[in-house]
Write a structure and sequence with these properties.
5 strands; Aminopeptidase; single chain; alpha+beta; globular; binds coenzyme A; 4 helices
Amino acid sequence: MFSIRAMTLDDYDTVIELMRATPGISLRDADSRESTARYLARNPGMSFVAEIGGVLCGCVMSGHDGRRGYLQHLLVLSEYRRQGIAKALVGRCLTSLEAVGIHKCHLDVFKTNLAAARYWQSQGWQLRADIDRYSFTRSGNDNA
Ligand SMILES: CC(C)(COP(=O)(O)OP(=O)(O)OC[C@H]1O[C@@H](n2cnc3c(N)ncnc32)[C@H](O)[C@@H]1OP(=O)(O)O)[C@@H](O)C(=O)NCCC(=O)NCCS
């Protein structure tokens, strides 16, 4: 059986390794240790890791802007999938957001990540066809 606990900065190296090894997850400069420390400090107790027998086998990060929640970097190591770990991780995020009055959460999925699309839709997340996301990078750094 797996256990879930809040992610801390001590998990950073392991979590980044998991992300690097998982197709469909993109890493940006915004995933640096410094940015992750800021994110965790701004959104305490809203990012989680899953462990089985001391192995960190899944993670998710979430936070909010005071109005809407945002969820990112959900992943479960392939050999640990299909046992409810992602469902439990996402549940913890939604519960922690709800605890501070945030009842709606958004997330981004690459259009090429069809497995993720199937997953989110199977879990009742609604694909938004009515909005386009626009992004602007002031630094001009494409990997910001
Ligand atoms: C998507 C992912 C996190 C699912 O992890 P998981 O631990 O296997 O998922 P769970 O076991 O919690 O599954 C929960 C539910 O989703 C369903 N599900 C899981 N993977 C699915 C998939 N690829 N397609 C459709 N449904 C899926 C399960 O059947 C289960 O449904 P149920 O609650 O009705 O029984 C995992 O496949 C993964 O890490 N993928 C690569 C990373 C990725 O793409 N992440 C999303 C980026 S936005």
